Amino acid sequence: MSDKQQLSLPLPPSPVRDDTPLVPARMVNEWVYCPRLAYLEWVEGEWADSGDTAQGKRTHARVDRGGKQLPSPDDIGDEMSKARSITLSSERLGVIAKMDVVETGEGVAIPVDFKKGKRPHVAAGAYEPERVQVCTQAMILEDNGYEVPQGALWYVGSREKVPVILDDELRAKTISAISALRDVATSGRRPPPLENSPKCPRCSLAGICLPDETNLFSKKYTPRPLNPSDDPALPLYVHTPGARLRKSSERLVVETEEDSMEVPMIDVSQVVLLGPVSITTPALHALMSNEIPVSWFSSGGWFLGHTFGTGNGNVAVREAQYHGAFDEHKCLALSRNFVAAKVQNSRTMLRRNWRAERDMETKDQALEKLKRIVKKVPKTDNIQELLGVEGEAAAVYFASFENMLAIHPRKNLPGFSFSTRNRRPPTDPVNAMLSLAYALLTRTFTSIISAVGLDPYMGFYHRPRHGRPALALDMMEPFRPIIADSCVIQTINNGEIKPKDFIFNGPACSLKANGRKALISAFERRMEQETTHPLFGYQVSMRRLINVQARLMARHLQGEIPVYPNYLPR
């Protein structure tokens, strides 16, 4: 292309800030395909692997092996040559690219981008996002002094090479895409999701983007089940006193005095250490590198904290969270939301699990009291008043809790009598189980909230206090009866935990190793159970549902959805 032609094209506007990073050419491709996807990946640093992305990585890994160095523009001879995995940038355009292959010869350079699939049968020979990406690479080469007559795409699936014509129209689209992406990154405004788009079902970020869920509040169509299937990785619990966790190649090894076991690291979503167990530094480094959090608990089941890597770098969502946390009206609105959902779900638990042999009149009275309390929640004027309403609901709920247990405490199992909720320390077996179940739920919410990019320690209802994951405690309120309480009821009613599984130390009661293991197993089973989301209508596991709720909270705080929708099973 001549100098005259180059100067006739529109140039991108100057960056608003000097620290605006160079846009990767791959992100320009994503922007043309879906602006929201490009923003989530490049600006917010979100990523999720899928079968397609894994296959793409394997394709590019093969391309990156071997190859000659790229000669300077003046050193290109007549002989054809290929340079692989070449990184160049253009300050004029504000872009950078890692090019799969650059073919040189006869004084010119041709960028060739590799794609994993088969060549699409479209008029231009390839889809627009791919052609824009190649055009970006070509213009980078030109700004580095190379003559580039055209570009090309190589489709690995069909082993076909498709030329990309670098006409003025394609160049103008490319410059416009680069400029738009840089502008939106500077402004910090996330593009809206696509509406009912056929692109969404195969997108690896569908479960992060939540396009249909976000659009539900403004576009009244039924959300599709776009959330990817649950990660098969599961938490690894280590609770045998004296156990040691170490790393061996890509596996985690749990060693005890009696034996040892190995677990592939890829099968572990997080590590939970309870009591006097240890972990080696290499194992800790490997877990942090693989973004696998380590949760620490005391022997009595108190949640102590997390160890994880650099974490989610999405500053924008935390900025919105902090703004909300210092807004009294926002705090009160969210707090009412949490408490109302908790009381409704407590009522649902009593309605579902009240034993048939118990007094039905007492049941009706308890349900009616909780129904009245739910109506009082929106009328509270401040957090202190709301705390009083929540306390009133808790008194009604826990006064009836014993009626959900299968065996009456005054007959054969006095160890499971329950009259009131107590803690610090719990003084009876049921309260000991509830405390551990709530600690496990706190750990789950803290981990998921951190992964989403929110700060688990800055809450709206529970006020910030050193070491207390206030937002995790806020968001888990509606889930306490549905997950934690149901696990306790299930293990007692199924006979999985017996009075012999507890130990008393003065007034304090705690679970022995076998009882703790049984409750943890029940908790993990509950997390894997599928439920129908009452708002979106699709089936998800409880673990995945909590992730969806955390992302909905982020969307609400950033103004994408008007209200935070709590989980309210029927």
CATH topology of the largest domain: Four Helix Bundle (Hemerythrin (Met), subunit A)
Number of domains: 3
The number of strands is 18
Give the N-terminus to C-terminus distance in angstroms: 66 Å
CATH class of the largest domain: Mainly Alpha
Helix vs. strand class:
alpha/beta
Q: Mean pLDDT score, rounded?
A: 82
Question: Ranges with pLDDT <50 over ≥5 residues?
Answer: 1-18, 49-61, 408-414
**Continuous helix count:** 18
CATH architectural designation of the largest domain: Up-down Bundle
Task: Summarize this structure as a short list of keywords or feature phrases.
570 residues, alpha/beta, Lambda Exonuclease, Chain A, Ribosomal Protein L15, Chain: K, domain 2, Four Helix Bundle (Hemerythrin (Met), subunit A), six-stranded mixed sheet, disordered N terminus
Describe the protein's architecture and organization:
By secondary structure, the protein is α/β, with parallel strands linked by helices. It has 3 domains: 3-191, Lambda Exonuclease, Chain A, CATH 3.90.320.10; 234-307, CRISPR-associated endonuclease Cas1, N-terminal domain (Ribosomal Protein L15, Chain: K, domain 2), CATH 3.100.10; 315-528, Four Helix Bundle (Hemerythrin (Met), subunit A) (Up-down Bundle), CATH 1.20.120. 42% of the residues lie in helices and 16% in strands. It contains 18 helices and 18 strands. It has helices at 3-8, 25-33, 35-43, 51-64, 128-143, 168-187, 206-209, 211-215, 281-289, 315-325, 328-353, 360-376, 383-399, 429-452, 470-476, 479-493, 513-528, 542-557, and strands at 23-24, 81-90, 95-105, 108-115, 151-155, 160-164, 234-238, 244-248, 251-255, 260-264, 268-274, 278-279, 294-297, 303-307, 502-505, 508-511, 530-532, 539-541. The strands form 5 sheets. Strands 1, 2, 3, 4, 5 and 6 form a 6-stranded mixed sheet that branches. A hairpin with a 2-residue loop joins β15 and β16 (508-511). α5 packs across α6. The model is unreliable at 1-18, 49-61 and 408-414 (pLDDT under 50).
